[in-house]
Amino acid sequence: MTSSHTAPEPSTDNLAAERLARSYLVRVAEPPAPAVVDFVAQLGPVAAAEAIRAGDCPSRVRDETEARRTHDHAQRDLDEGARLGMRLLIPEDDEWPAWPLLSLQLAASRGVPGAAPPLALWVRGHTRFDEATEQAVAIVGARSATGYGEHVAGDFASALARQGVPIFSGAAYGVDGAAHRGALAAGGTTVALLGCALDAGYPAGHVVLLDKIAELGGLVASEYPPGTPPARHRFLVRNRLIAALSEGTIVVEAGRRSGARNTATTAGALGKVVMAVPGPITSAMSIGCHELIRESGATLVASIDDVIETVGRLGTPRPEKVRSKRPTDGLGPDALRVHEALHKREGKSAEQIAAESGVPVARVRAVLPALELDDLAERCESGWRGRARR
Amino acid sequence: MTSSHTAPEPSTDNLAAERLARSYLVRVAEPPAPAVVDFVAQLGPVAAAEAIRAGDCPSRVRDETEARRTHDHAQRDLDEGARLGMRLLIPEDDEWPAWPLLSLQLAASRGVPGAAPPLALWVRGHTRFDEATEQAVAIVGARSATGYGEHVAGDFASALARQGVPIFSGAAYGVDGAAHRGALAAGGTTVALLGCALDAGYPAGHVVLLDKIAELGGLVASEYPPGTPPARHRFLVRNRLIAALSEGTIVVEAGRRSGARNTATTAGALGKVVMAVPGPITSAMSIGCHELIRESGATLVASIDDVIETVGRLGTPRPEKVRSKRPTDGLGPDALRVHEALHKREGKSAEQIAAESGVPVARVRAVLPALELDDLAERCESGWRGRARR
After folding, report:
1. For the residues A303-328, what does the mean pLDDT come to?
2. Looking at residue A190, which CATH number applies to its domain?
3. 3-state SS of chain B?
4. Which residues of chain A have a CB within 8 Å of the CB of B299?
């Protein structure tokens, strides 16, 4: 599948330099690194990496990079990754999941803490990442799931995967593992997002499962460069990617203090659909789900039909989607708001867009041609509209 | 416990005549009988019974009574009831649950079909009916409940009964029976409302349970005179009384087409709290509960704490309640709306009441003194307020 956008392809040399720069950046900046992400958006990855390496950067950026800025293993990491069967996917790549990650950037611009998008993703598996996020659903839950929870997770994952829905999860024991296995069993796509490096061998009991995911058309991905061990805070940081990359998150089982609830909360903050599966009130593993439904407005889902009805357009003709080569790189907060205000089909005047986005009309007029260059907007008879891909 | 209202007590002779009249009326009019209820509100029970007996009544009333108006077993029913340990409770009695039944009358005046209050209630048991409805909760559910459903019903009923909450249910097998038994085991009050006569021996397997309820401080009640057999439509008609007489209804288990859902729907239409207990999505007996939560806005309750939080003031100091000797008899739709607009403590002007109730101010001024006579309103420095009982 090739992209149909009209912007010029960056040269292979450029891409290689950008990949090397981002290899340095993901090693140096522990995610989420909002200041580094902003800095890269301003300067581009190559110049930003150079400035950080030299310590010649704003203090916010320095705070996020000072501890490791001399860890300059960029090429070594790329070589080691290649040896281990990983590739470093960067926002400059065609298959970067720019569209779903826009939710993180928008949340970050709204001040949601920790919502910065990733600087790059280490990936195993041969599927295109952008395709694996199309109408994806996350299925997450307790590590200490009951037989009921594992059954439901596997069942939902299989049924959704059979309908072409990619299943995202966190590769943990319990619900996560059952979800990945269910999707694999149905011959579907599943994506495991890890809170450690792809070569950390974690969780130990799921090493074979992760190999299978990478081999059988799925993806295993992580922000963390080779050798990074798992850590509690990394699971929480990872959760934002599960939430952002899927259209909705289903919590199958969760105790009172489950990490799955964190994913659900993040999904809600990103404007994604949050669903929870009920269970026996006598089960400690359903307490979190019931609280999500009762107190946090999660939608109860008791069947695949419920999930499809809730997530919306699954099983119906897919809507046209705007995709860009690098939307997250080019767009500042104003451009994001202008872009959000565009309709896919119907044109709008600059005045109308200004009114809807709250961005001053002069600024809207300046931003629109930039969005057009980025393949994110186009002129039409009635004004401007979002760029729709066939 | 004596009433503190200031209206004159009806004489014992009057009460006897009214009871005899209503014994005739509940025999003649299959509930719900909205036209007969209105007719009795206008003429009083004695004159209304006489007119119906003579066939000298409006056509709507005749429609509801024509089939049985010659079944004049009023005294025989009272005698037979007494022999069987039943009494006929009538709205003219001090212990009539006038306040909770107001919800039915208000719903009827809003045009909710089938919401007419009962003309009288046949009762077994020695507790005062009005006290048994104070902050009551209904626990209902599938006859073919699972072990899980019976466990939850019994558990909730016991825990609530221990906190002084009367438990209402329908005496059916499964959830209903477990709820009654749980309340009895906790030494609490439980009320069984039947869709047949108290002497129908139905359900056969619960005859002993019903005897125990009547003996151990609970109540067994029905609109149906001695000898009335159970019928499907009578269960549905009975459900409105369970819904009206309790502050909230908990559905513990319900299949896709459960009668418990009918009670829940009615409770919602009466403005009562509707709660549902989740269960395994693999259980057909929890489908109805999940649908109620997902589609009908029922509140998920997974613990007694959830129930108490949802129903509100359980376990907190009880609010003062307005009670009247015969509020349902005296009040037309306007008076009901005016009464609804009164505050228990703070006085309001007639203009304010008119604005809030939508009843013209001249009519408000006419209705207020009538409400005062009925002990439902009182004058105060700042206008009019609802009559509060110490």
Report:
1. 60
2. 3.40.50.450
3. CCCCCCCCCCCHHHHHHHHHHHHHHHHHCCCCCHHHHHHHHHHCHHHHHHHHHCCCCCHHHHHHHCCCCCCCCHHHHHHHHHHCCCEEECCCCCCCCHHHHHHHHHHHHCCCCCCCCCCCEEEECCCCHHHHCCCCEEEECCCCCCHHHHHHHHHHHHHHHHCCCCEEECCCCCHHHHHHHHHHHCCCCEEEECCCCCCCCCCHHHHHHHHHHHHCCCEEEECCCCCCCCCHHHHHHHHHHHHHHCCEEEECCCCCCCHHHHHHHHHHHCCCEEEECCCCCCCHHHHHHHHHHHHCCCEECCCHHHHHHHHCCCCCCCCCCCCCCCHHHHCCHHHHHHHHHCCCCCCECHHHHHHHHCCCHHHHHHHHHHHHHCCCEEEECCEEEECCCC
4. 294
